[in-house]
């Protein structure tokens, strides 16, 4: 069984790699030979960008979503909860942030997850570390960042996202804000719900991976294509350094402004990143752009509205405030060192 | 009569689960009743960690994802 999967896996991987390695030359050929555009024109620049980036990003997405889908089958919310329950605060914050990367998360699940965690012994701060990390540091964001900017930027995003999640959760834990959780939450009785711990064999895990691809890539591919189209337009037509004035390193106010603009915006990572890439290419500073992205993905108004059901208003403001400050600090840091 | 409850606050996955459960129950032939539970307090009384969830005759059969048509039939039967 394992051998069969191993062989199929290797064959598919080889195919994937062969295709991936050829993307650049294929895009070049298609743009300049097949369609016959003139090198150096705006249109050619935009088109080549588009033809190159769309299959590249989609291929990366499929690969990583599949892999993470399999990893996730090992980390159900229930198992995550069991791991976190009763851990001391600092350790718990770190674990929670790390687990947030691999635990599946749909914002509609935020409330049941929150309640399930806090009523079974997971401290409030630790739960919040998880709630910050799960939507923000997700594999789609990381894949796209890696695919478009390389592993350094992806690593930075993941690292700083984790630090913000750990820090914010820890701070809120220190502030002892348990009374700011809606009272009815703590009245909810925890306990087993009768769902047996499903023993999953490897075939089922692979199926989970395939299902994740069908589900996630199926939902997100159009946004990716649209985002890349916008990015291609910016790449081809906007003059270099046009963004430097408003989003460049010297415009220090661009970081807090970017974070502020990001809050009411709600986008999945897939749509925003290709645009971010184009902005970066036109002179926007890395710190400002990262801050903007984190703000869009991590601080979302829809999520605040959902969390309002379980958190009282002061805590929601503190929650968002601490995370926003963290993001702004990260933004400044990167503009300073990069 | 089988009592099916779909727990969820109304996002796309919850609608899909309701649709799949409905079709599966119809295919099984036995009489059934499908109820969508959207009130949070009621949802939490089932002690699930993620929505959407499928409850059959009071027992939580599945939570956190949408099953395939065949899976749904197995869970409801």
Instruction: Please count the helical segments of chain B.
Output: 3
The assigned CATH architecture of chain B is 3-Layer(aba) Sandwich
Highest CATH level, the class of chain B: Alpha Beta
Number of strands of chain A: 0
Distance between the termini of chain A: 48 Å
Question: Can you walk through the features of this model?
Answer:
The complex is a heterodimer of chains A (338) and B (77). In chain A, 75% of the residues lie in helices and 0% in strands. Chain A has 338 residues and is mostly helical. Chain A has a domain at 77-186 and 237-337. Helix content of chain B is 39%, strand content 27%. The model of chain B has no long low-confidence stretch (mean pLDDT 84). Chain B has a four-stranded mixed sheet. In chain B, strand 3 and strand 4 form a beta hairpin. Chain B has a single domain (2-76), classed as Glutaredoxin, CATH 3.40.30. By secondary structure, chain B is of the alpha+beta class. The chains are: A mainly alpha (338), B alpha+beta (77). Chains A and B meet through helix 3 and helix 5 of A and helix 2 and strand 4 of B.
In short:
Chain A has 338 residues and is mainly α.
List the defining traits of the structure above.
heterodimer, A: 338 residues, mainly alpha, 16 helices, 75% helix, B: 77 residues, alpha+beta, Glutaredoxin, 4-stranded mixed sheet, 3 helices, 39% helix, globular
Give the helix/strand layout.
The complex is a heterodimer of chains A (338) and B (77).
Chain A lengths: L1 H33 L7 H31 L4 H8 L4 H14 L7 H9 L5 H13 L2 H11 L1 H24 L8 H5 L14 H36 L6 H4 L6 H9 L6 H13 L4 H13 L2 H7 L5 H25 L1
Helix pairs in contact in A: 1-2, 2-7, 2-10, 4-6, 4-8, 5-6, 6-8, 7-8, 7-13, 8-16, 10-13, 12-14, 12-16, 13-14, 14-16
Chain B lengths: L1 E6 L4 H17 L3 E6 L2 H5 L8 E4 L2 E5 L5 H8 L1
Parallel strand pairs in B: 1-2
Antiparallel strand pairs in B: 1-3, 3-4
